[in-house]
């Protein structure tokens, strides 16, 4: 019961209004153009870029029951963008301008905090 409440609390914090975020210390390091899989309710990932670019996050696979939020956050904790799908199982691509080299955080979250058995997958590209 305590673990379920903790997970619910984390999910509710993740759905807070965009602004300055507290960056997760356990964000998984990923590479540009790498296919990444995870399980809802979601997680934070971080990717490093060496020069300014437009970061694009593309959902490649989404469980049919997953209503998704994708956010891109800079290393100062500023939300560059956050978009939600309208319907469960919907695919999307999200872009944000990454104006300086450094680490950028990607949040892939299930809007309703559901734990699902099927994974989602995505990749991040620098355009």
SSE topology sketch:
Blueprint: H1 2-14, E1 28-29, E2 36-38, E3 42-49, E4 53-61, E5 68-74, E6 79-84, E7 93-98, E8 102-110, E9 120-126
Parallel strand pairs: 1-3
Antiparallel strand pairs: 2-9, 3-8, 4-7, 4-9, 5-6, 5-8
Strand order of the largest sheet: 1-3-8-5-6
**Portion in strands:** 35-45%
Secondary structure: number of strands: 9
**First-last Cα distance:** 44 Å
CATH architecture: Sandwich
Q: Over all CA atoms, what is the radius of gyration?
A: 14 Å
Low-confidence stretches: 5-9
Taken in chain order, the helices and strands follow as: HEEEEEEEEE
Helix-and-strand structural type: mainly beta
CATH top level assignment: Mainly Beta
What summary fits the major beta sheet?
Answer: 5 strands, mixed
The figure for the number of domains is 1
Estimated helix fraction: 10-25%
Q: What is the number of helical segments per DSSP (H or I, 4+ residues)?
A: 1
Could you name the CATH topology?
A: Jelly Rolls
The coarse silhouette is globular
Round the mean pLDDT to the nearest integer and report it. Answer: 87
């Amino acid at each position: 019961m305590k673990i379920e409440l903790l997970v619910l609390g984390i999910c509710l914090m993740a759905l807070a209004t965009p602004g300055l975020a507290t960056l997760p210390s356990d964000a998984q390091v990923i590479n540009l153009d790498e296919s990444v899989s995870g399980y809802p309710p979601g997680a934070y990932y971080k990717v490093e870029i060496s020069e300014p670019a437009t970061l694009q996050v593309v959902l490649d696979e989404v469980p049919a029951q997953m209503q998704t939020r994708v956010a891109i956050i800079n290393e100062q904790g500023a939300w560059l963008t956050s978009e939600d799908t309208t319907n469960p199982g919907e695919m999307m691509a999200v872009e944000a301008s990454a104006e300086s080299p450094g680490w950028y955080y990607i949040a892939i979250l299930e809007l309703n905090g559901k734990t699902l058995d099927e994974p989602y997958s995505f990749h991040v590209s620098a355009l």
